[in-house]
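Below is how a single chain appears once it has passed through the pipeline. First comes the sequence as given, then the structure the pipeline wrote out for it. We keep one example in the README because the format questions we get most often are answered faster by looking than by reading.
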Amino acid sequence: MNKIGNWWKYSGILLTITGVIHTIVGLVMGRDTYWKIIKSGFINAIEPDFERAFAFWFFICGIMLIIFGQSLHYYIRKTNRQPAISLGYWMLALSVFGCFAIPASGFWLFVPQSLIIIFAKRKK
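Resulting structure:
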């Protein structure tokens, strides 16, 4: 058995955890900005303010990671099949791109997750 073993079975959970971390970091770091959005009545309170837009999209991306992670986990549980290897390559490409663009970021969290998917022992 390769060293990756059955780690692929946790791919959805790992992605969900990454989304939770992303969302929490965004809420903590942007708490003042979120309060400004709420105090402004939320509706039409984001554009054209870049800081508010950034905080909003940071939050939305975290939630989307959670949704994607939960969907992937559901797929793995229902089918007992590895995620498509192309998912691993796409995650790796995007994470490496992100790591170069913003080295001090959470993009590094996707590298091991993508490698788990890429190097999972494939059923023949």
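The chain has a mean pLDDT of 93.

See the next section for the split statistics.
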